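> forwarded from #structure-qc
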């Protein structure tokens, strides 16, 4: 049996990617989508409504406000 391993040099980037993906999944369970633009802006949306968020911390706060914990 073989195991795939990651050879990422920058563990911080890996942790940030995981934090984003986890938050994205939490929001998805609550009916929202979370995307990151090329400029690094986070956009959360549901239906035809969207909100720009400047950081992952702001997105975490939004998730708490809508009960996506």
């Amino acid at each position: 049996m073989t195991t795939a391993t990651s050879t990422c040099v920058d563990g911080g980037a890996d942790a940030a990617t995981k934090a984003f993906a986890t938050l994205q999944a939490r929001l998805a369970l609550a009916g929202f989508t979370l995307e990151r633009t090329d400029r690094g802006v986070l956009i959360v949306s549901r239906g035809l409504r969207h909100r720009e968020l400047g950081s992952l911390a702001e997105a975490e706060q939004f998730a708490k406000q809508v009960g996506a914990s």
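QC bot note: The beta strands are 33-36, 42-46, 49-53. Residues 1-7 have pLDDT under 50 and may be disordered.
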